[in-house]
């Protein structure tokens, strides 16, 4: 994609003037710009072929009359409102089109969406643009068109290569379609794509996840997401729980598969994310590093820093597609994150990453002094949940397995 001409960065209303003060003004604006976190864009397309029984995302079965064109218009209107509301002039470092199953939309609609974004925002050179897709929606010509539009990363929802397990998960594809999807991704020019896999599935045998991981590795993705099935509220599985493997089996399965991934060059950099060297998902890393992101689309959420520490905003959009379409200019809302909650918010995100965090990163992202992490931070180090090296903190093996025990120490009680 080309780059939209950048606007002067002016988040604090500094006037741009000519004359002797012009150089100072440029410097002040540069400093202001770099006080704010990197900015990404998340776009939610809420339709799927059918709703899976484990899924708690905002997704809805697609219909013959799904308003594809009207939804693209609403997304671009939504974006325009957010840009004005939050005085956005920072460049976008990544775009993630999630769902639902965004690959159900036509290349023509995705093209209109991307061009509309490019016309409203400054895009960093070489930004990552991810599109979520499911194997049942893969057609060679369609994905070649997506690649030609500038989409340079796919995230493919495989879940398993076992047909019996796929049926229990309510998936609409079979194992051969999953394999074919990865082959089409390569053929279409995607050298950077993710495969989603689950473990701890109902009826799974001791070797099923190992076979899934080995099959995925043979397909040569750059990234594998490998996460445990959880029974989330407001899902069919939560209402009618299937029989799952016991905790000991699940834990041993996870450890065995993690070793296979590591042996084949897939480095774990986040709780459930494994990538080849240098190919971590930039968009998700920005989330976990407490970066900012605009969220547009039905049920989308965003986080925007306007002033540290007292004006970090969580935005949210109307969840039902019909409500979102009715007036994308007005629906949704926003809440300011209380300053007292920022230590937990920061820790909850950063400790998902293997690399942990530095005190400098905490101060830069929140505007708070290092002392605001105490006494919880010292308590975690003393209990060997966190390891400290100079001003760098990261989870120990014990802390990684019991992350909730760390987070509860940072909860503010009133």
* Gross geometry: globular
Question: How many individual β-strands?
Answer: 17
Going by CATH, the homologous superfamily of the largest domain would be Aldolase class I
Mean pLDDT: 90
Spatial order of strands in the largest sheet: 9-10-8-7-6-5-4-1-11
CATH topology of the largest domain: TIM Barrel
Kindly report how far apart the N and C termini lie.
49 Å
Which spans of ≥5 residues are poorly predicted at pLDDT below 50? 1-20, 24-32
Major beta sheet, specifics?
9 strands, mixed
Tell me which CATH architecture of the largest domain applies here.
Answer: Alpha-Beta Barrel
Q: Report the C-alpha radius of gyration, rounded.
A: 22 Å
Tally of alpha and pi helices: 16
Protein structure class: alpha/beta
Level-1 CATH class name of the largest domain: Alpha Beta
Strand content: 15-25%
The number of distinct structural domains comes to 3
Task: Tell me the helix content.
Answer: 25-40%
